[in-house]
């Protein structure tokens, strides 16, 4: 049946301000549809035919096909839908060139660089209000291209390159435009016509600018290679996914914190004490056992608290009682530098942790759901700038792993269970939590009694004057037992998780982290109580701070040894057993929860030992560097990808939060109590002879006020800011408020995104309604005809 021709007249408003219309102007789209429906209704009532005039394009849109989505629509309706600007711009090169020619002309008339807000980033912008393409006497494609080239030649080089980058054309089309621009720009005749010939100085300046720009872009391309472990992290993420990658990113973050802490202590404490060493003491010979025990040769060294002096380092008469030399203009008081460096380093670390946690809260929220992310990954994930074979393979593996994670996330949605099944799951999980908490209690009691027993054994060995090697070997027993407990209990928790049968691997990791965290933090709390109670297993050293530093050094070293043993036997040997003996094509999986808790545990030990062993961050740096390469090699050679892929979008936030509150907060409380309340040793260390470590600051401020009355403001700062607890509570409240406000901002962004999604859904329903109205108009017309 022949269709009656109708006339479509969609109004186009011209803008007087020269700004480009937004491609998302829904009001104009609805106005066009409303006018179209009214016009068609009037035509149906009048039964008057008119000629159907399609909007002028470079080529006629093909006859639309009857697909499932638009089944039942008439051909005229589908033709109108196919000729909409949003559906034709993507396949019409002439329309694109016309749009950017008009934009270039407006830019030239304004004679200023366009702000970025006015440049559309849409791949298919609307062509309404672009008079060149809607003109019935539209030019051909070649004429449009030549006109665009002329308009581009009138712009500055920066505006020209920016405009070419924003044109949604293929690389071949852009390359052709650049060649035409370079050919016409190099013509002297064209330069003379434009009235801007290049002088020798201008050409030199132009080439210098191009050279500097190329050098800058070359340096920017080298920036990823300068970042530590850039290629290794990409390789891990592409092969094992974001869940395993989160462990190595967290390890890299801890390495940055330790480097920062070590540099502060090295510059203000360790290096200056090494430059002005105290009176030499009798050193024990180095036997190699000190690398495990931290005692012996290392006892009287820069590694521990007892080596540092309690005098002004650069004072000429510090070591000579009868001396009349003049005092230095800038005295360096070691006790004050020691306590202030530790305090400032903890304060700056707290700020960095709060900043990292606040930023992670914003980055952890992924805009869009799994369906939207899946579409983005399928259609927009490939980077066409990658040309090398190795990087192409790496990127394809990365995209494949991300698609697996997204599909697994969609499939892992919880299915409704019956009440009996829910009750069974709740009972199993309560029983598992009861068993885990019972094992924690048993481990803590065992560590307490074993520590008391080792303290008695050490005192008995000291009274009997037994061998020095035997005494140092006894020092390793308590760290050995604690590290053995920390290495064995996570495997028990994995068995409990297998019994619980968690549906989501994310929840399984969170539960394992909580159980391991409770165990490690309770054991560390018991050890801190024993250290402050002076019930510490120590060698013949009289300085209890040095004994605590040695104990913490042994715990760090023993933790690294057990991590290495667990990697060898839990991953390498188990892979060989699976492949050689059991003949299975299966490999062990990387245990994220256990490995992350080992990192948090080691970092907590480092923060606890900063006051007693200033070089302990250096030991932690070496440990983290070795751990990265050992774990990476074992991961690549012995482990397989997770059997249940899952996205670790919020894992970094969880790791930083656990590092901040249980770990850093506990270490800060422990050191604050030590500084303010615990009496230091009488015969060693920078604070010998004082009631508390904090008294060194008061003593120094009084001496400074007597020697120089012009700096009374510093006394006021110390009295009202440092001694006043209100200031400390105020700073803590500000930091907590920053965290709270960032969380609220993220929640507000989530709510806005949800409202925008609802608005988009409503707009889609409105469009469906308008299309149905348009279809009904054509149906009425067909029936009447």
**Main sheet specs:** none
Number of β-strand runs: 0
Helix content: 55-70%
The number of helical runs is 26
Q: Radius of gyration from the CA trace? A: 37 Å
Q: Helices and strands, in N-to-C order?
A: HHHHHHHHHHHHHHHHHHHHHHHHHH
Decide which structural class fits the backbone: mainly alpha
CA-based shape: globular
- Residues in β-strands, percent: under 5%
Terminal CA distance reads 9 Å
Task: Outline the low-pLDDT stretches.
Answer: 1-30, 43-65, 112-138, 187-197
List keywords for this structure.
785 residues, mainly alpha, 68% helix, disordered N terminus
Concise account of the structure shown:
With 785 residues, the chain is an all-alpha fold. It contains 26 helices and no strands.
Structure description:
The chain is mostly helical and 785 residues long. The chain is 68% helix and 0% strand. It contains 26 helices and no strands. α16 (419-464) packs parallel to α19, α18 runs antiparallel to α19 (505-532) and α21 runs parallel beside α23. It is globular. The termini are close together. Residues 1-30, 43-65, 112-138 and 187-197 have low confidence and may be disordered. It is found in: Membrane. Belongs to the TMC family. The chain crosses the membrane at residues 247-276, 336-355, 472-489, 509-532, 552-574, 605-630, 651-676, 726-746.
